[in-house]
Amino acid sequence: MDDMVFMDAEIRPHRSLSERGFIILISIVTFLNCCSAAVFLAMGAYFVPLFLGLDVLAVLVAFLASFASGRQIERVQVTDRKVRVTHETPKWSRVVWESPTAFTRVSVLTEDDQAVDVRLGLSGKEARVAAALSPLERAEFARALQGAIQDARKARW
């Protein structure tokens, strides 16, 4: 017998810069650094272009790391038997939290009427969920998660 699914949420981090925008940005940074390097070379400062090249490399590495973290998905599933949180990328998947639905609680830390932190708890252990969402989205997600857990508990009786 298959478990009844009450929630299957996929949370993806928002990235404001697309890959096309990244290519444009890195092209502009490279062009400006090449212009600066030419000026410094003309003045006889031969080591400055090396540092400008390191600057472009550092920006490139930072954005590539950001894009890699943007591909990570947090999946929250609530069935009539268990609550499961997994982190997934295109290459791997790992279970971060798994607990029986009947005993899992949702706690929400709020400041100024905004959800700052949403956690799943069981027997003194906690796992943070929905960290990639904005505070308003996090509050809405917490309400939906609590509702799904309540519906799953009712379905078991």
Detailed description of the structure:
- By secondary structure, the chain is an alpha+beta fold.
- It contains three helices and seven strands.
- The strands form two sheets. It has a four-stranded antiparallel beta sheet, with helices on one face.
- A hairpin with a 2-residue loop joins strand 5 (105-111) and strand 6.
- Helix 1 runs antiparallel to helix 2 (48-70).
- It is elongated and about 80 Å long.
How are the SSEs ordered, and which strands pair?
Layout: E1 5-11, H1 19-43, H2 48-70, E2 73-79, E3 82-88, E4 93-100, E5 105-111, E6 114-122, E7 125-129, H3 135-156
Antiparallel strand pairs: 1-2, 2-3, 3-4, 5-6, 6-7
